Amino acid sequence: KTQDQAISGETEAPEFWLQYQPIVSLKTNRIMGFEALIRWNHPERGLISPADFIPLAEETGLIVPIGQWVLRQACYQLSVWHQLISSPCPLIVSVNLSSRQFVQPDLVNQISQILQETNLNPRYLKLEITESVVMENAEVATTMLQQLKSLGIQLAIDDFGTGYSSLSYLHRFPIDTLKIDRSFINRIDIDGENLEIVRTIVTLAWNLGMDIIAEGVETAKQLAQLKALKCEYAQGYFFARPLNCEAATALVLQGT
Ligand code: G
Ligand code: G
Ligand code: MN
Ligand code: NA
Q1: Where is the EAL domain (predicted)?
Q2: CATH code: domain of residue 61
Q3: Measuring from atom 24 of ligand 1, which residue has the nearest CA?
Q4: What ipTM, to 2 d.p.?
């Protein structure tokens, strides 16, 4: 249980913890990794969504220690899972990075240190950065992404398709993965319009040598459409909701 103990260091239910949502290979039907998602149970106000508190933590700067804790916890947990399994292609963990974290001058050092402390091979850590965060700082972003990449970690553009993407930048960034925003996925089983958008993003990723993950897959029909488009990976309630550590560990042990 100790790995669940959070910032507060309490021995009872922690205020902060991570959930892990499986990311599935559509070719093999196996879990290729998990996205780590922070959860906050406020002592008086109960569960508060990260969609609400992350922007606030960004403003106050608290996102920096919170973000470091998330990274360390996620890397530690993955390292534990790697010791539990002997899979030929080990799991990855994907961690969201917010705007303020992304522009910290010592981010690369922090991550490097966390990888060492948790004894995690960098190739199994992926950072998710939204399209808008990258594009807001396009010039600085190129340098930062290159430095992060040189650690040997993987990089993903999160919520792809919702920002003002510049294709001329996209091909210059050392990006491994595009995560198609769920707003495009949630209607591909209803209208053909988003189907063409998703097809285009899949082709774009393929042409740029990037992996593709469809987010927010909720129905069998959406999954079938994605398979027909040769989308490689998917994530969403259809497969699994974000899971507590115990439930995610059970899946890891099942070898799924
Ligand atoms: O998991 P959920 O749907 O509640 O997440 C809501 C939003 O909060 C999503 O945009 C997600 O990317 C973001 N989020 C979840 N966990 C983290 C985290 O650890 N760091 C950052 N920066 N954002 C997170
Ligand atoms: O912005 P980001 O992609 O990091 O957001 C991830 C959030 O999306 C997670 O917090 C998770 O709770 C939520 N999510 C994951 N799968 C689904 C899904 O199938 N449908 C919906 N509506 N939300 C999802
Ligand atoms: Mn994400
Ligand atoms: Na997203």
Answers
A1: 1-256
A2: 3.20.20.450
A3: 96
A4: 0.97
